[in-house]
């Protein structure tokens, strides 16, 4: 993992190949694939520490992200935090999400569940799974970067996401 982080820092996530990683780490390519399953699996493992910190913040942290805040405030804060996370970790998230086997990883499942719970706590009814999926789609790292590439600022992307979340909650 240290070798992968170093190579990504030097070349970027898009340039990292499993062959390069194996060579730089002094192991066989098969060893790398047995450990991570795929390039996307490697990216998911590299994101794990930051994903855990993100989860800790919205599960146990202070308001507005944490549990002491009202549901809508928490939902809006989760959107802001996740958009910032998606921007900061775009290359790794994009690479991890290219493989359907790792796209719906445990971190994504936790986030989706959290969005669904916050929608329910905010009084939303109807198909909460579809509503959570709609919000989650707007948090996708490639979507966030596309919005930024078209000239929107990070604050504008956050405001747009929060507008959708408010409308879903009837506010």
Description of the molecule:
This protein has 171 residues and is mainly α. The chain has helices at 2-11, 18-25, 29-36, 39-60, 71-88, 90-97, 100-103, 106-121, 128-137, 141-149, 154-168. Helix 4 packs across helix 6 (90-97), helix 5 (71-88) runs antiparallel to helix 8 (106-121) and helix 8 packs across helix 9 (128-137). It is built from eleven helices and no strands. The radius of gyration is 18 Å and the shape is elongated.
Features:
171 residues; single chain; 11 helices; mainly alpha; elongated
Structure summarized in a few sentences:
This protein has 11 helices and no strands.
Helices and strands, with pairings:
Layout: H1 2-11, H2 18-25, H3 29-36, H4 39-60, H5 71-88, H6 90-97, H7 100-103, H8 106-121, H9 128-137, H10 141-149, H11 154-168
Helix pairs in contact: 2-3, 4-6, 5-8, 5-10, 5-11, 8-9
